[in-house]
Specification:
With about 120 residues, this protein is of the alpha+beta class. It has one domain. Strands 1, 2, 3, 4, 5 and 6 form a 6-stranded antiparallel beta sheet that branches. It comes from Luteibacter rhizovicinus.
Length: about 120
């Protein structure tokens, strides 16, 4: 297991976006779960994160594609969640399900309701 860190487009070719910032900029259009819920995730919970993935177009231009994908929580270290990507991105085959993802509560934009109920029971 690697140490907690946020990825960057420049270094890793992908990153997770800060859902709290997006919500603050457009609270009527961009809902996120309450902070208490986002801070209480347990292993097996599925959370949705916004990813930006740098891809090369057919003409060689680099663009950043945005995708919302599910991540399965596998652990927590201090304020960091460790998870595994549970989706295959549409924009690339370079990133696959099972990819290790480190994130914090501020990055969570949704919580899968069925699995959230299982882990809180």
């Amino acid at each position: 297991m690697s140490a907690p860190r946020l990825t960057t487009l420049e270094h890793d070719g992908w990153m997770v976006d800060d859902g709290e910032i997006a919500h603050a900029e457009s609270p009527d259009k961009f809902w996120i779960p309450p902070l208490a819920e986002r801070e209480s995730m347990k292993p097996r919970n599925l959370v949705k994160l916004r990813f930006y993935i740098r891809v090369e177009t057919d003409d060689g231009e680099l663009i950043d594609e945005g995708e919302r994908m599910w991540v399965k929580v596998t652990g927590k270290v201090d304020q960091w969640y460790r998870g595994e990507l549970d989706n295959q991105p549409y924009c690339t085959d370079e990133i696959k399900p099972g990819l290790e993802v480190w994130f914090q509560a501020r990055h969570i934009i949704d919580i899968h309701p069925e699995l959230a109920e299982i882990s809180h029971a």
